[in-house]
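Reading a protein record of the kind used here takes only a little practice. The integers have meaning only within a learned vocabulary of local backbone shapes. With that in mind, consider the following protein and its fold in token form:
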Amino acid sequence: MTQETLALHYGYEHDGFGTMAVPLYQTTAYDFGSAQKAANLFALKELGPIYTRLNNPTTDVFEARIAAVEGGEASLATASGQAAIFFAIANLAEAGDNILVARKIYGGSTTLLTHTLKRFGIQAKTFESDKADDLEALIDDKTKAIYFESLSNPQIAIPNIEKIVSIAQKHNIVSICDNTVATPILLQPLKLGVDVVVHSASKYITGQGLAIGGVIITRFGLNEKLIKNPLYPQFNEPDESYHGLVYADLPFPLFTLRARLSLLRDIGAVPSPFSSWLFIQGLETLSIRMKQHSSNAYKVAKYLKSHPKVKSVNYPGLEDDPQHDKAVKYFKDAQTSGLLSFEVEDFESAKNILDSTKIFAVVVNIGDSKSIITHPASTTHQQLSSEELEVADIPEGLIRLSIGLESSEDLIADLAQAIG
């Protein structure tokens, strides 16, 4: 089936009432009916709902559906995109290990991976993802993951996915790609050889800024990389917290299974059933929304490119963009979502533009049906030092736009009067 059909139907069989909409199972716990049934579920002899911190029927549908749309084998829903990133890394690395992180990523991801995880004893080494020429030299026997974004926020940069994947495969290291901005509609990293994809479901997946959530999705065949791999003993040795369970002995997708039974169980960063239900609604229209977001963004980018007060525009969908060849190579019809950024003279100029827009809302979010304008250096990436901002290619005059579903003519007119 195509993505459009999967997004509408996959993972749900009509219940006894024949309901067309996926039911919302807003519950914390479940009646097992008997002691033996409960024991079988906890021993993994039977599969079914145990406790909503571990699984939930509504969330199960979302997990199955987003995995199918992304072209993956299995998925795990989390309470936020940040939680998805944390679980993906914590599933692979521990104190004394290191991870390789692209410099051009979302500011919150940078602080999580390079600062917060450092307190857990996990070191982050950064690499330049556009070409990835410096990546392989950073690998040592303690490297457990390579992390990057398929379309970086806010630089709107496309990494050398092919080279990153090749290096990860050569060294038997798990690669992790944040596909939030591109969405599976425009790019499917798992089909390019990436091992694990993460999303902030709070963005394009929900589509209207209605819920916070995240998701981890794994490729078919990832078990083969994990089983008997000395880099990842946690999948191959007994788990003392689960009566000596060896994950590699089980006939399930190991990455999401261990993340669920160990990390989700203990840390508890799970989405509410209602949030999962909202994500299901968003998936149903994701394909048509991404086409419109991309179409609008292309028109806005072309306008900004011609404006005398705009120093530069970052939108790989433009034919004259330096990254357009990679957009053609990796992205469906070279559409590169609704996110773009442009640079003006300085912070004051950027601030005046933000304060002058009438349709664009000054909001630190992306992927909403309504258009958003943000100044990254003072908000989403404010926690970075001036040196880190320079390395991440985020000048003080950079403005990020998340183009919504309004008329492109109205959006261009609003920017015209704001820029002056």
The domain at 3-274 is CATH 3.40.640.10 (Aspartate Aminotransferase; domain 2). The longest helix spans residues 273-305.
